[in-house]
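Researcher: Here's my situation. A collaborator sent me these components and asked whether they could plausibly form a single complex. I don't have experimental data yet, so a predicted model of the whole assembly would be a useful starting point for our discussion.
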Amino acid sequence: MRRIRTIMGAAVAALMLALPAAAQELRVGLSAEPSSVDPHFHNLTPNHQLRSHVFESLTDQDKNQQPIPKLAESVRAVDPTTWEFKLRRGVKFTDGTEFTARDVIFSYCRVPKVENSPSSLVVSMRAIATMTAPDPYTVIVTTTAPHPILANELSNIAIISAKAAGAPENLTFNRAGCTGVEAWPKTEDFNNLKLAIGTGPFRYASFTRGDRIVLERNDGYWGEKPIWQRVTLRPITQAASRVAALLAGDVDFIENPPIQDLPRIKQNPQFATAEALSSRIIYLHFNYLTETPPPGVTDTAGKNPFRDRRVREAISLAIDRDAIVARIMGGVGVAAAELLPNPLPGTNAGIKPERPNIDRAKQLLAEAGYPNGFGLVLGTPNDRYINDGQIAQAIAQMLTRIGIRTQIDAMTASTFFARRNRAEFGFWLSGWAADTAEMSNPLRALAATPDRNRGMGTTNPGGYSNPAMDAKLFEALTIVDDARRNALLAEASKMVMADFGLIPLHFEVSVWAFRRGLTYTAQMNQYSRAELVQQAAASR
Amino acid sequence: MLVFILRRLGQSAFVVAAMAVLVFLGVYAIGNPIDILLAPDADQTERDAAIARLGLDKPIYVQFGVFLWNLLHGDFGKSFVHGVDALGLIISRMPATMELAIVALGMTALIGVPLGVIAGLRHNTIIGRTIMTGSVVGFSLPNFWFGIMLILFFAVTLQWLPAGGRGPTGTVFGLELSLFNPAGWPNLIMPALTLAIYKTSLVIRLAYAGTREAMLQDYVRFARAKGLSPSRIIGVHLLKNILIPVVTVLGLELGAMIAFAVVTEQVFSWPGMGKLLIDSIYRLDRPVIVAYLMIVVVMFVTINLVVDILYSILDPRVRLQDIES
């Protein structure tokens, strides 16, 4: 308020009346704009983050991304393919109707029916075969095959109000969308807030695309009520502008401040930061598709060097992960030994990040038949992950040191992903965030032999294939018992690492910055959630 | 006259059609939106469904045909990202950009003309030279840098103005504008100033040259001889004459400001069309990019057409030359 008064003088003195309310307002600078208010529209982090304020799901993720009960009070595996969800009683939607099993079934029915969805949430419920409600507070879900990570996946699917959407009384679930529903709720009716009715800690007050989203506290919330009467979410996609907005006092809280500004923010006593290790691994991947040199590989006498395990090990040994984390990541990273940080489910406790060993790397290259190394082009995005372009530069230098003369081919993310998915690189740097924060997710996507129809190796365009690992992974995927499954996953992970199938570099650390007097329970899934922003005890 | 206008209309239509082809092919060439839109763990069935829904499975000439056909019906397609009408999305962002451009234009005139006239009247003094040197600086500063400096100084250091975004708006004729809500002004000042800086330098130079020329003209001398006060000479006789080129240039620059406020909007996270364009490019939202570029093309072609026709009315020689050639 101070600056407005300075400029406008008494003309806006009337605005001062707004001050008491502003004290309970939280203003947030987001790094990406959600594409819709419709919670089933787009399977994208900014959208999930936004909807979690207003719409809840059967389960939620805790700060370490492990499933916790939310609208379901308990989840129980009746047998390997049957799950029983006991629903929370006394939960009300913001329009006053009570939450029951009918809302759950209606919500799951709607997911496949969203028009123009850029990326469907069906991905998170494809294991479901049937859904029934023996009574209003119980939902029985059966899966087509044993599917242990169901509870975690369902944290993605928001429950909307069946009554507000005009659903019929009796609904029966069908995987393709239920029968008996005449008109499915339209995305625009969420965007204009007509149907944006949830059970969460906040309700929508306004949605102005490109500018701001305003939330108000849901005073009838069943859980702990947030301290904020009002939350304004402003997408500020430029990192520098976001930091400026925080420093200028326009916003109280921002996500993803750029690394180069972190020291400045941390040194300033008016601001504070929160950090959380994320499940996003930055890794190097190889192109195994051909006998002949893949794109960008030269001087190998017509061979694909990556098919030789010794070459892959040499590359891993050439990389100084600690140096990358310390100097390029400015400390907001953790050197990686696997595709997920320990102690998440399916990781190996004792495994340590590889230490650089130049002599051994050169020796391995010579043994593999490349005593003079070879030429290599490393493909990388330069605006997707934290300092991705610089990391690639450093890796190019480290590899050149062992004789692999490496150039980098850096480009904007949209071009990079399109080219990577067409396997146009021989060797590339990329990142992967495990939505479910357990090992089956990265193994399936990145390391399993590509089998598009089974959803295996969806992001393994280089065609890495390790049948023994595949077998272990498939077995693990059917085991509902957590301890046994995670032990198998840990073994599978170890197999990929021992084979140097792909080279883990580091995990990103997510950072939030905010004005002094606030605290934030940093989330591993990188979400910014207003209800988890608290006033620090001292300043209350 | 009619022949001339028809010829010009024909030429304009040709330019728009040629640009439609170029824009479509250009945007088509910049990567596959599926890789950005789709969750990375989607399986092949989901990928195929999404590709088919966006019409990306068809060969490019079919896609182009569909695009043209829809275009003729005023339909630019639906945004891949937001799932809403691309044209509507752009139009919803237009008021924010328009008010930014108009305020910038006002600043340009209010700052540029007086400074230019002062510099012209006192071209041998320190004030005159300072203004003219300043205008060179205004020409040479990159737009985004100036914006960032403003933010650093007025928002971060002094905390007088907000660093970005749009303030509270008021509704005027159904449009959401911050111009009519005093609380919205602080947000408007810095981006408008950033947008105005280059044009202001331009106007200073025009006004300066005009003033120096006019001061030597007979009508100014005569006015002086009549004993009119200097303020009346400058305020009425001089200003009237030098404003003609200034207004012409400002009219043309308004179009440029609306179409290319992109960088300024990005730096100040101003929710206008320009920011939408950049965000759409990042997400490869083809219909929005294409619609935006087509709107810009049509806008410039229209402005040029109107200017040409006006000139031909004012100066019939233009028409004759065109027919001879």
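Model: Some features of this prediction you could bring to your collaborator: The first strand of chain A starts at residue 25 and ends at 30. Chain A touches chain B through 66 residues (CB under 8 Å).
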